[in-house]
Amino acid sequence: MTIDQIDKTRVPRHVAIIMDGNGRWAMKQQHERLFGHQNAFTAVRQTVEGGVKLGVKYMTLYTFSTENWNRPQAEVDGLMELLIKAVREETKTLMDNNVRLAMIGDMQRLPEKSRIMLEQCINETADNTAMTLILALSYSSRWEIAQALKTLCSEHRDPATIDEETLRSYLTTKDYPDPDLLIRTGGELRVSNFLLWQMAYTEFYFSEILWPDFREENLYEAVAEYQSRQRRFGKTEAQVEAGK
User: Catalytic positions, please?
Assistant: First the structure.
C-alpha cells in the first residue's frame, strides 16, 4: 500500500506499537535472539519516517517492559548496549525528520550510560515539532498505575476529590493524548501490560509480520484498516452518523 491511498484528513493522532517478533525472527535466521533486536532498527526508522509523512503527531514504541528485566542477564545487557547504539546513531535521523524524543517508564532502573545517552537525545531533539516519538522503556501499565496511586496516597487526597481526570494527571503519559491505534506485530493477540488505562477506546490492529520485517507500507496498511472502522466511544451508530 502507498501513502497516496491514505485519507490524510483521518490519520490517527497517536499510534502505539508493540514491536513483537524479534526473537522469533532471529531464530528463523538461525541466530541468537539478540540478532533480531539488532535488525529491528530499520523497521523503527521506516515506521517513524512513515508516521511523519502521514502526519501522525505521537508514536509510542513499547521498547522494554518492566517484566523484560527478568530475561537472561546476557540478553538484558545486550539490549541496553543496543539502546545506547541506537540512540547515538539515530539522533541525526530524528533531527532530519523534525522528531522529538520522549520517554515513559522507570528511568532510574536503566544503566547510567543508557540514561545519559537518552537524556542527551531528549534534550537535543526537544524543539522538534513534526512528531513526538515516545519510548516506553522499563515500562508496564500496572507499574505506572501503582506509581500514580502511591503518589496520590502520599498526598493524602480526599477520595471524594479523585476522579478519572485526577488519576490521569498522575500517569507518566499525562502530557500525551490516548492512542487512537495500537499495532502489534508478530501474530500475538494480547496487549502485554501496555497502556492499559490509555487504550480504553483504542482501535487494535494485529499483524503476522515479525517486527524486523515491518516496513513503511505496513504502517499504511494498518492506518487504512483504522480508517475503515467507525469509532463510536459508547454512542450508537446512528448518533455517530448524525454527528451527535
Answer: 20, 68
